[in-house]
Amino acid sequence: MRTSFGLLFRTTHYALRTTHHLITHHYTQHNAAYRDTMLEMLTRVHARNLVEFARTRPEVVVLSGDLTSSCEVDTFRDTYPERFFSMGLTEQNMMSFAGGMAREGYTPYVHTFAVFMYRRALDQIEMSIAYPNLRVRMVGFLPGVTTPGGATHQAIDDLGVLRALPNLTILETGDATDVESVLGVAQAVEGPVYIRLIRGEIPRLFAAHEPMQLGRARVLSRGTDIALLSTGICTEEAMRATHVLRERGVSLTHLHVTTLKPFADPAVIEAAANARYGVITMENHTIMGGLGTAVAELMAEHGVGVKLHRIGIPDTYIHGASRQYLMREYGLDALALVRRVEAVIGQTLDIDEDDLAAVRLNTFASDQQQEAL
After folding, report:
1. Cβ contact 74:64 at 8 Å
2. What dihedral do alpha carbons 69, 118, 332, 50 form, nearest 10°?
3. Residues 6 or more apart from 75 whose CB is under 8 A from it?
4. Domains and CATH numbers, the chain
5. pTM over 0.85
């Protein structure tokens, strides 16, 4: 039975990789300049950061759902073998096990693909972790379109599900600096935390000495025409688009959001209230239940009467392909944002793919804000 399952998995995986290559080859060739040469690119950021983070925190333990290398915790396993627990393909048991360890004074960091957390083990997350308000950190990989694995592996609605859980704090990373600082933010929370983490090759969009802060968005620019709020991998796309939009005379306030719950940042209300044409949200998640919904709720509660436009995955499951292809196909990339801005302000700005591909982003630091205004 084990051999049959392994053969089926490998065969399916090969077919998926082949289909993924055929679908995306043309797109990748056409967008060879997609990645900036000026941005610092880093690999296995979480792997290194977790080992250093745990060095002075003996209470930190790591649980893996049979995806140790895929979740970049193999280095932790090799460095601290007595603090590493391989739980196998038993996500429900792993969540309850983590809750038990938290009751004994440990701080478990549970690692697996996000879909295997909130889909397979939601009851255990609620009853064994969230309800008793325990210090368990759930590190979910492959959010949204960051995997070619198709609907079975794409966490497109995890925020919508988990934002409804009492006691749970939710964080999302968008670059290497976020990944490097998110563990410290999570560790300071007295209660359970869910982290949407990115892996592999990651750009450094924000200065290394300016870490993520709980409940506070990064203010990337200030303007009066549109308030733009982006999160996760969509922020890099948004930064590329806003660079060209500002050159065309569009004045934008741009916030990079890393705390999805609690969601009460005064900067969000200020940006929305001062936006002449309205607010745009941009996220690697379905438009239902994620950043767009959180912003809508906050605007309604504070009586901010401007239009809200949500960019995200529409009300559908998505298929398997590369991240770049899926972002284009489902309207999550820089060009999609440009077209939405044009619709909102009622003006054609004559921006095309070549204009966006020519943008070379530099790592952003807060002392650059005045130059960007």
Report:
1. no
2. -40
3. 44, 47, 48, 50, 51
4. 41-203 (3.40.50.970), 218-365 (3.40.50.920)
5. yes
